[in-house]
């Protein structure tokens, strides 16, 4: 009954904000079109569809807000005006009572809050759809931040996710664009992200890894996790001090060099992505601060590690080859890479894809570097990808989302930021390491222990492969018999040896006794 009521409320919200126009527009069945005309008859809306969609998601609650945030990253699937509007979604969730937060902390650790902390601030410093954060002080005097998962979130999330999965199946079945939009895959991707965020131990592990990776860079600070006070529902970390990066006037008043800050942000991003293959994938202004402490002045302070992007060696190699081709304006090679990777159907004409990519990229190379927007290039590429049914990989969508965040953040700090010239030296060094002689030598060194083990066995393995399966089986059986016989012989030799030792020992004992007497 609860699910039925929830579904009714969702339907009411859809009609209230006129989303039926948007939701039913892509369906090809006549009865669906007739239903759309009936329910929209007589209604007029002043706001555009994107605004109404954003307002409806905010009305439906935190799960739908989070879904809208994730959906806003899929610019390969959505019209740009919808994606831009969904990108404005924020977690507008009122905090839950401090007494309830304290009770959740006590339940997680089995101790009273007064025993765990010398002080525990009742007013949360931040409240989001998944958790809220309270400042506290340990008994030792160390200042910490306590992140507490919202109560009952798992049950609410699983219930709403089940509805989203059902809706995705209907959209895929009935909508003319269902197969291209892949709604079930989008919901499954969102399901994974959301459940990862619900496990605060996973978030702590992400933070610890990022902290180790960034130690030698001296450009970004990651809070230390207090592992003895980390559970799936409560996370205690080092308290960080800084000015939110969106408050540019406060940063200027504090003496922070905004141009350097913008360049440092680009360096941090490309280091995480291309050196480590492990990057903070939720770098919106609410999760970034700037340290004003004398010892760490001007460094980034990263917060909230629920969403982390990773790249495999294959991903990085693919990106390296694409960057090389783009820098050389070899659009044919870019198109061939898309076909070879299976991202476009095998029957795709390479020359047509090459011409489409050239039309997107070539105008930007003829303009001054400071006027090039990498974000706009990516958006145009995603528009092209829809025409050629390019299958976008989730990990690269996270990369694209984060790159757009970084560029937007950088241009907010420094409108003259030249993202290409800032990133190009780093990318050239990295590409040389990945695909040049230096990369070949490093990979050979990394694989040397395996080669040392496999090379002596290679002649035998090759001989077995050439002999065929039947003879190989017979040789294996003969080898087992030989091993068994060898074990029997070894046991016999061991018995003879122990017997001889015993006999010699007995003779020596008799001689020694005779000598004593």
Number of helices: 23
Shape: globular
Count the strands? Answer: 12
In percent, how much strand structure appears in the residues? Answer: 5-15%
Let me know the largest β-sheet. Answer: 6 strands, antiparallel
Task: Indicate the structural class.
Answer: alpha+beta
Whole-Å distance between the termini? Answer: 103 Å
Mean pLDDT: 77
Report low-confidence residues grouped into runs of 5 or more.
Answer: none
Percent in helix: 55-70%
Radius of gyration, Cα only, in angstroms? 31 Å
For this entry, give a set of tags:
single chain, 517 residues, alpha+beta, six-stranded antiparallel beta sheet, 9% strand, globular
Task: Write a brief caption for the model.
The chain contains 23 helices and twelve strands.
Structure, explained:
With 517 residues, the protein is α+β, with helices and mostly antiparallel strands. Among the domains are: 2-92 and 154-196, no CATH class; 242-449, no CATH class. The protein has helices at residues 2-16, 19-24, 30-40, 49-60, 62-71, 80-86, 98-109, 113-116, 153-174, 178-181, 183-198, 200-214, 248-253, 258-276, 313-327, 331-340, 350-365, 374-387, 394-413, 419-435, 437-454, 458-467, 469-516, and strands at 117-120, 126-127, 131-138, 143-149, 220-221, 225-230, 234-238, 243-244, 278-280, 288-290, 300-302, 308-310. Strands 1, 2, 3, 4, 6 and 7 form a six-stranded antiparallel β-sheet that branches. Strand 2 (126-127) and strand 3 (131-138) form a beta hairpin. Helix 9 (153-174) runs antiparallel to helix 11 and helix 14 (258-276) runs antiparallel to helix 19. The radius of gyration is 31 Å and the shape is globular. The model has no long low-confidence stretch (mean pLDDT 77).
């Amino acid at each position: 009954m609860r699910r039925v009521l929830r579904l009714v409320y969702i339907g009411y919200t859809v009609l209230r904000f006129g989303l039926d126009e948007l939701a039913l527009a892509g369906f090809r069945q006549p009865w669906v079109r007739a239903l759309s005309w009936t329910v929209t008859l007589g209604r007029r809306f002043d706001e555009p569809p994107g605004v109404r969609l954003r307002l409806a998601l905010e009305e439906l609650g935190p799960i739908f807000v989070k879904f809208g945030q994730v959906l806003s990253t899929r610019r390969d699937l959505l019209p740009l005006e919808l994606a831009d509007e969904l990108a404005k979604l924020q977690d507008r969730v009122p905090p839950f009572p401090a007494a309830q937060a304290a009770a959740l902390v006590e339940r997680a650790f089995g101790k009273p809050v007064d025993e765990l902390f010398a002080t525990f601030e009742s007013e949360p410093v931040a409240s989001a759809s998944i958790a809220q954060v309270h400042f506290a002080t340990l008994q030792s005097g160390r200042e910490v931040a306590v992140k507490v998962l919202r109560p009952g979130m798992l049950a609410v999330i699983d219930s709403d996710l089940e509805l989203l999965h059902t809706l995705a199946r209907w959209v895929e079945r009935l909508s003319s664009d269902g197969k291209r939009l892949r709604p079930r895959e989008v919901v499954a991707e969102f399901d994974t992200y959301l459940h990862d965020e619900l496990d605060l131990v996973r978030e702590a592990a992400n933070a610890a890894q990022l902290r180790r990776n960034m130690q030698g860079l001296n450009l970004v600070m990651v809070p230390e996790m207090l592992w003895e006070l980390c559970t799936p529902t409560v996370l205690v970390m080092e308290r960080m001090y800084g000015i939110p990066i969106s408050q540019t006037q406060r940063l200027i008043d504090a003496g922070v060099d905004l141009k350097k800050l913008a360049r440092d942000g680009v360096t941090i991003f490309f280091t995480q992505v291309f050196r480590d293959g492990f990057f903070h994938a939720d770098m919106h202004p609410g999760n970034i601060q700037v340290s004003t402490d004398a010892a760490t002045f001007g460094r980034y302070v990263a917060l909230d590690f629920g969403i982390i992007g990773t790249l495999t060696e294959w991903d990085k190699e693919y990106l390296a080859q694409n960057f090389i081709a783009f820098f050389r304006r070899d659009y044919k090679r870019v198109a061939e890479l898309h076909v070879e990777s299976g991202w476009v159907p095998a029957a795709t004409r390479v020359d047509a894809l090459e011409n489409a990519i050239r039309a997107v990229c070539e105008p930007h190379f003829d303009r001054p570097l400071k006027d090039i927007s990498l974000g706009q290039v990516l958006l145009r590429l995603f528009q092209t990808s829809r025409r050629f049914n390019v299958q976008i990989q989730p990990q690269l969508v996270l990369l694209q989302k984060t790159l757009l965040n970084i560029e937007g953040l950088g241009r907010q700090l420094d409108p003259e930021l030249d993202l290409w010239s800032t990133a190009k030296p780093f990318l050239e060094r990295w590409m040389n390491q990945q695909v040049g002689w230096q990369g070949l030598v490093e990979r050979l060194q990394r694989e040397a222990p395996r080669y040392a083990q496999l090379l002596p066995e290679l002649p035998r393995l090759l001989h077995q492969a050439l002999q065929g399966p039947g003879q190989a089986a017979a040789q294996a059986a003969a080898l087992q018999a030989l091993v068994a016989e060898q074990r029997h012989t070894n046991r016999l030799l061991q018995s003879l040896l122990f017997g001889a030792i015993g006999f010699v020992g007995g003779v020596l004992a008799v001689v020694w006794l005779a000598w004593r007497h």
